[in-house]
Design the sequence.
């Protein structure tokens, strides 16, 4: 096998991860994330519905359909302000966006969330000081994470199509700013100053929905204190 073939084999397409908090929680708790924290559905973006989510929310995941209109609206440049402490993973593995979203939500909150020794903690520590491209390379070669992703992507109530136009992105707060972390893009997106992660993420997500108001395949999940 040539070097190029070997490299491409590391990018084998993963099965999509279902947008299901129960599966996500089993996935990350199995990898050592403290059960004090859990992913939970956000049933609506209006203030009264956001108030139902336990606080503090430390990350928000958005599942959305990829469209040319949204891609054009989300153009980014490398001139925006980005915190040096922000951890951003490039996605080079097809269908890995669910795991990339979970990584973004956890790696940027290790100050709040305890992660036991194991493959996830080792991955975060190993990639903390790397570039996004170098992190992507480490992910391509991480068989432990690939195995865990495969195991829990097969736990869904409904089989997610392997060729899907749905994609996960994550919203986190760092140094007082709201960032959108989408591994398909070259850079994080800085959405400006943020004092309330959940409310500010909801405003950004409403812009996604407004760009395609007839599309119903949006799903929002928050990472918050576990109430169970």
Sequence:
């Amino acid at each position: 096998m040539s070097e190029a073939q070997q490299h491409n084999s590391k990018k084998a397409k993963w099965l999509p991860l279902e947008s299901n908090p129960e599966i996500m929680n089993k996935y990350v708790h199995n990898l050592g994330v403290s059960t004090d924290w859990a992913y939970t559905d956000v049933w609506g973006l209006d203030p009264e519905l956001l108030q139902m989510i336990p606080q503090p929310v430390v990350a928000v995941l958005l599942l959305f359909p990829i469209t040319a209109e949204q891609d054009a609206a989300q153009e980014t440049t490398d001139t925006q302000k980005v915190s040096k402490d922000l951890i951003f993973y490039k996605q080079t593995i097809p269908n890995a966006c669910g795991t990339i979203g979970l990584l973004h939500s956890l790696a940027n909150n290790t100050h709040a969330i305890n992660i036991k020794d194991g493959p996830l903690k080792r991955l975060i520590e190993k990639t903390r000081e790397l570039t996004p491209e170098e992190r992507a390379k480490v992910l391509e070669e991480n068989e432990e994470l690939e195995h865990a992703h495969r195991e829990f992507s097969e736990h869904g109530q409904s089989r997610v199509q392997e060729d899907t136009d749905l994609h996960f992105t994550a919203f986190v707060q760092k140094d007082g700013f709201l960032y959108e972390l989408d591994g398909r893009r070259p850079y994080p997106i800085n959405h400006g100053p943020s004092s309330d992660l959940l409310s500010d993420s909801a405003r950004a997500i409403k812009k996604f929905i407004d760009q395609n108001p007839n599309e119903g395949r949006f799903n929002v999940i928050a990472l918050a204190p576990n109430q169970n």
